[in-house]
Amino acid sequence: MCGVFGAFSPRNFVAEEVYLGLSALQHRGQESAGVAWIDENRRVNVVKGMGLVYEALSQSVLAETPAKSAIGHVRYSTAGGSMLQNAQPICANYAQGPVAIAHNGNLTNFESLRDTLENRGAIFQSTSDTEAILQLLAHQPQRRPFEALMRALAEARGAYSLVVLLEEGLVAARDPWGFRPLSLGRRGDNYYVASESCAFSLLGASFVRDVEPGEVILINERGVTSYRLPLESKKKWLCSFEYVYFARPDSMIEGRSVYRARQEMGRKLAQVETANDVDFVASLPDSGTTAALGFSAESGLPFEAAVVRNRYVGRTFIQPTQKVRELGVRIKLSPSPDLFRNRSAVLVDDSIVRGTTAGLVVAMIRECRAKALHLRISSPPVRFPCFYGIDTPSSVDLAAAKYSLDDIARTVGADSLRYLTREAMIEAIGLPPDSLCTACFDGQYLGGEDASASCGGNCGKIFD
Ligand code: 5GP
Ligand code: SF4
Ligand code: MG
User: Fold this and answer.
1) Which of 298, 279, 391 is nearest to 1 (CA)?
2) How far is residue 94's CA from residue 315's CA, in Å, rounded to a whole number?
3) Interval between CA 63 and ligand 3 midpoint (Å)
4) What pLDDT shows up at residue 161?
5) Which ligand is nearest to the CA of 315?
6) What separation in Å is there between the alpha carbon of 56 and the centre of ligand 1?
7) pLDDT along the chain (464 residues), means of 10
8) Residues 39 and 7: beta-carbon distance below 8 Å
9) For the CA of 350, the nearest ligand
10) Given this model, what pLDDT does residue 463 score?
11) Which of 79, 154, 259, 429 counts the highest number of beta carbons within 10 A?
12) CA of 315: how far to CAs of 76, 311, 396, in Å?
């Protein structure tokens, strides 16, 4: 998972605005950050660094960088892959000029694309699937970059929400299945593209609309022009986990407020079953809090901020070893002994993946001598890995893939454990079931007709 941001202005320098936009998308990736722009010599420039936006990039340098158009990226760590050469945007100055790409998502046909490209002489500089898009583009030196990009995207399968910088302008593109969110914002005649709408508020820009699945938008001095990729999928595949966990609650995705969806998940979770004699509802902050508030509203049980999050430590999920993850959870979350002692609580979290977080926090709450602890999860059991850009581990590491729910409850030490059903989650999101991806919950991956979509005979033309 990553965050992408792009800005275009007919007059002003925008590199600093990209820095600010990335800061608002920091929750989508903490491993590295980068900003790219095209200079007056028609060369693409990039600055990248490891860590959070403010650690990786210099705001004051970007503020003085003359660029009317720039893009940026925050990268989400995958275990072992944390290094500067995987940082984005990825850039090149090729036969037709400068290009920079920032990508959120994961191409499912990357390996076959790489094989084809390597057989044609491409030399890959990284292990990143995003590079395949760049190589596909560069392998069409006879075409203008925008047209080459459109044709390159017609070859790609899987998840991509992209911002691309070309001499022809700033480009926003979303795959025909619509896995990852991407939205368009505006302030006067400045335009912005962001993974999530929460990034616009910081810049005083307003949300215009979502980039549609299969849409490619070109923004330049002539304005905003919308194009369609030559592929269409009837079913859409917007990631339901964005509403469960990933996106910021103040974002709107497909017209649905992430906050409201999460609150509704909590309400529906309370309808599943509330244990008897419960004194209060608590959450695992921050990810479980909005759902816990919905649970509290529906059940009438008071919400208590009884687990405290140390806000100076980052995410624990992504740490490479189990030992480091466990230590991370202990440093990050602490229950208030006074609130739990001799009382019964419902504890709400958004998801259980490996079971590390829930197991450790429940153990810590037990040490506070709680009377009873009922764990409630505001999404269905995660049983399958994600191939579309979220680093949920292979099934062997997924608690719900290996164990029954009773076994998970016993292992984490909860008196009871309930999950939201897939149907209730979809209802809470409020979008039609055939517009969402739920593959990590039900194993229904993009396949068959959807995978190839319908290209009207126009795709696959690069190499013929
Ligand atoms: P577990 O500790 O069970 O492996 O992971 C569950 C916890 O990690 C939950 O509190 C949830 O908020 C968070 N989480 C779930 N999925 C992801 C993910 O893809 N990335 C990150 N960083 N955290 C996640
Ligand atoms: Fe999102 Fe799960 Fe689908 Fe991955 S598999 S895109 S996490 S819903
Ligand atoms: Mg969490």
Assistant:
1) 391
2) 38
3) 34
4) 98
5) 1
6) 24
7) 95 95 96 95 95 96 97 79 84 96 96 96 91 96 97 97 98 98 98 98 97 98 96 94 97 98 98 88 96 98 97 67 81 96 98 95 97 98 95 88 96 97 98 97 84 56 56
8) no
9) 1
10) 57
11) 429
12) 10, 10, 22
Half-sphere exposure for 285 (CA within 13 Å, toward CB): 16
Ligand (nearest to CA of 393): 1
**Beta strands 436-437; 238-239: pairing state:** parallel
CA of 314 to the centre of ligand 1 (A): 12
Ligand 2 pocket mutation, candidates 241, 244, 436, criterion most atoms within 8 A of CB? 241
Respond yes or no: is residue 368 known to be catalytic: no
Q: Tokens for 262, please give them.
A: 């999460």
User: What pLDDT is recorded for position 423?
Assistant: 98
Separation CA 295–CA 264 (nearest Å): 8
Q: How far apart (Å, rounded) are the C-alpha atoms in residues 352 and 358?
A: 7
Q: What atom of ligand 2 comes closest to residue 438's alpha carbon?
A: 8
Contact present, 73 and 88 (Cβ < 8 Å): yes
**Minimum-distance ligand 2 atom for the alpha carbon of 387:** 4
Strand 161-166 with 333-335, pairing: unpaired
The answer to whether 384 touches 390, Cβ cutoff 8 Å, is no
Ligand 1: residues within 6 Å at CB? Answer: 245, 284, 287, 315, 317-318, 349-358, 390-392
Question: So what's the pLDDT on residue 144?
Answer: 97
User: What is the whole-number distance in angstroms between the Cα of residue 256 and the centre of ligand 3?
Assistant: 22
Residue whose CB lies within 8 A of the most ligand 1 atoms, among 26, 262, 353, 362, for a mutation test:
353
Interior/surface letters 254-268, b for 16+ CB within 10 angstroms, e for the rest: bebbbbbbbbbbbbb
Q: Is the separation of the CB atoms in 157 and 460 below 8 Å? A: no
Q: What one-letter code names the amino acid at 412? A: V
DSSP secondary structure, 181-214, as one string: --EEEEETTEEEEESSTHHHHTTT-EEEEEPPTT
Place of tokens 């200079």: 39
Instruction: With CA atoms as reference, report the closest residue to 382 among 411, 413, 419, 328.
Output: 419
56: three-class secondary structure by DSSP: helix
Q: How far is it, in rounded angstroms, from Cα 448 to Cα 452?
A: 7
- Average pLDDT, rounded, for the chain: 93
Residue type, 265: M
- Delineate the domains of the chain, giving CATH numbers in brackets: 3-237 (3.60.20.10), 261-430 (3.40.50.2020)
